[in-house]
Amino acid sequence: MAGMSRAIRNFAAASRRTLTAASGPALPKEAAAAGARVRAAAPGRMGRDQEDGRRVQWVFLGCPGVGKGTYASRLSQLLGVPHIATGDLVRDALATPGPFSNKLAEIVNHGKLVSDEIIINLLSRRLEEGEEKGELGFILDGFPRTIGQAVS
């Protein structure tokens, strides 16, 4: 665990240097390589490239209880980007009064799964809000969960 935390801290530091060094002096080879890996691993939302300024775009996937949220939260703090969990988006939508909230509450109260369409709608809105605020990226926790979500 300590080794993983150290690796994340080192990678995050290299990523921050890569993100802020657009007009600065040349980066060490390791930091430049780390930045290239970030861009190659996450080319951007819906196929966008790094030209849009949102360069940190990670997705954490895995079985329940493996630590997706823990590591996503830690990495989010280190990189200075928001940690977006679909469960939080659903809870926030439920807390906002209105017809959409009522429809969502009915689904959740009956123990049904929230549809891909609703999840993608919530996530799209959140990503658009972040882009308008000028957020430099995002870390998704637990999305996509289905092939349909991944394709959308």
UniProtKB/TrEMBL annotation:
Its EC number is 2.7.4.3. GO terms for molecular function: AMP kinase activity; ATP binding. The keyword Kinase applies. Transmembrane segments: none annotated. Keywords: Kinase, Nucleotide-binding, Transferase. InterPro entries: Adenylat/UMP-CMP_kin, Adenylat_kinase_CS, P-loop_NTPase. It comes from the Eukaryota. It is an enzyme of class 2 (transferase). Belongs to the adenylate kinase family. This is adenylate kinase. It comes from Zea mays (Maize).
